[in-house]
Specification:
- By secondary structure, this protein is mainly α.
- Helix 1 packs antiparallel against helix 2.
- The radius of gyration is 27 Å and the shape is rod-shaped.
- The protein has one domain.
Length: 118
């Protein structure tokens, strides 16, 4: 008798998995695609920010050299410092976005692993 019960429980679990797994895949797919697109967009934005930072840094070096040669160096130095603060703020924003995306990816992974188990 217990054998029949465990057999039917196993059969029921297999049938449930057979029904639920395709539905879960359909539900998870848009979230996964959204996450991947977000990561790709973040990578592109990060690349642009790094390039912009490099360009500004090169410009700062050139400006610093020119400022030393001419009057008004204090104003230029102040502008360069402001640009540096803005660049650091952009980097912080990118780090925060990366953290949010990582949390979203982890959440999706958990949903997928729960779907495999259930």
């Amino acid at each position: 008798m217990p054998r029949k019960k465990s057999f039917f429980w196993g059969l029921g679990a297999a049938a449930l998995a057979f029904i639920m797994v395709p539905k879960f895949k359909k539900m998870a797919r848009p979230a996964i695609v959204k996450g991947i697109c977000g990561v790709m967009g973040l990578a592109e934005k990060g690349r642009e920010a790094v390039e912009g930072f490099k360009d500004r840094r090169r410009g700062k070096e050139t400006n610093a050299q020119n400022a030393a040669k001419t009057d008004g160096g204090a104003e230029r130095l102040q502008r360069m410092q402001q640009e540096e603060v803005e660049a650091l703020d952009e980097i912080k924003e990118l780090k925060n976005m990366i953290s949010r995306l990582q949390a979203e990816i982890n959440e999706i992974r958990q949903k997928i692993s729960l779907g495999r188990e259930g």
